[in-house]
Amino acid sequence: MEITREQNPRLADRAERVELTVVDRGPIIRAEAAADDRYAALDLATTKLLERLRRARDRRKNHKRRPGHKPAVPVAPVEPEPTDEEMPTAPTPPTEPGFAVEAQLGDSPVIVRQKLHDTAPMSVDQALYEMELVGHPFYLFIDEETMQPCAVYHRRGWTYGVIRLNYEVQPKEQEASA
Question: N or C, which terminus of the chain has less Cβ within 10 Å?
């Protein structure tokens, strides 16, 4: 911690300067603030430092896997490879909610896993709640206002994003005639 006082009378509103530095494994985290009062500058610098410490901790987290995490959805076995005449262009989608279907994509080593989930239209707030509830970094949903497919996702820090697909829902009769 370093506390300095500015002697210039023109800078009286920023006379007290507080610099806080945390040296530990990983990056050095630093915050500074200036105010007319030493304690106000300390409060501002502490607030900045705590936010930067939280961000640094979030960056170090492994968001992909938790220790001991096992898939909660039963997985259907990979089907035997078809002959060249039977080779599908894409894996067949699952027909039952709650089950995952895995299939090899052509003759490549890529395995595609598909799941089918039941859903109902919901608001962005409800989708964020559901995303936090399941602990995933994103959540797909149908927006109740626009009836368009959307995804909410976790950004750095405590911010979120929404991706909206520009898709118009057409009745079955129009799709058949088009």
Answer: C
